[in-house]
């Protein structure tokens, strides 16, 4: 497992008047905990590695130890595959009462040994649960349980205003040009509908006006319910005091489909270097700016591999995004170069797609009311692999600059010989 920090860190940058913040969700275990193909090396013993890694192709015996489920008891001796079975379509676990997010079980299922893939879903869930329980501390399990109860309480009491929003309907959600590009599913079809005004920042129209209006109406209805019932809700992250987590009041499945079917195809092409082809979880929320709301947003990086940012409306002035280059953890506070500086003005229905490590902030919304939909898309595979890497020159601007400088120095030294 990898877990994210539950609070933001504030560190000085080279500019004494500027601080860079790391923007994370609040304590929301379902969005913070992500499955990795194997636990971090520091957390397991060689014996545990041998029992968890590799591909065991033995058939699962039909009977097991006395007094228990034969399939599960026998499966306990099997090992997870080292690499996922990409051709296997995992079961859905949304309707089951589980200790962990259903998405974790669906992701982990691809790593099950071949003989486990076709056993009953309940048996697979029990087998995977036993593995997961070994690597998630009791405190985090308790937080996960409390958050499940929190969500269940909201969903049991909140009555949606526009139920058509709770499942993806491409014909009514997306503008036709975007939908055609996704259906064609080629790099050229994607580039035909978008611009890239600065490296790694893609801008395109995505949502129909009617969809934006419906979602704004649903958000207002939810906030009205919160006010009337005096229900205390979790805010989207540690930097925004206003807004709501869409996943918490029933939109999680819809946003999952949005990520899987419409954002991952783009990310596979444009952000493969940061796990764009293996996005498997998300944190979806809205933020609000204006009078009696948040005014601006400090310089930060997102807790995501890929971020989708869409302005929903309404009438407003200001609020421009400013971008200042992509950085890995080591170089996150280094200075920016002229070619990395880019400012963007929001347009309702228009999306900005960028790497989560692309440093950015939002200037003050000087008048009116602005609401934006954010979808932080994550890859558990990329996060696991990143722990064992030191060179991120394929996407970190500073790593790339230093690598080129070393190459120039080597060439210069060679010429002197």
From TrEMBL:
Reported cofactor(s): L-ascorbate
Cleaved signal peptide residues: none
InterPro entries in the cross-refs: Oxoglu/Fe-dep_dioxygenase_dom, Pro_4_hyd_alph
Record carries keyword Repressor: no
Top-level taxon of origin: Eukaryota
An example Gene Ontology molecular-function term: oxidoreductase activity, acting on paired donors, with incorporation or reduction of molecular oxygen
Keywords (A to Z) from UniProt: Dioxygenase, Iron, Metal-binding, Oxidoreductase, Vitamin C
Annotated spans, Disordered: 34-70
Domain Fe2OG dioxygenase: 280-379
Keyword Oxidoreductase in annotation: yes
PROSITE patterns associated with the record: FE2OG_OXY
Annotated protein name in UniProt: PKHD-type hydroxylase
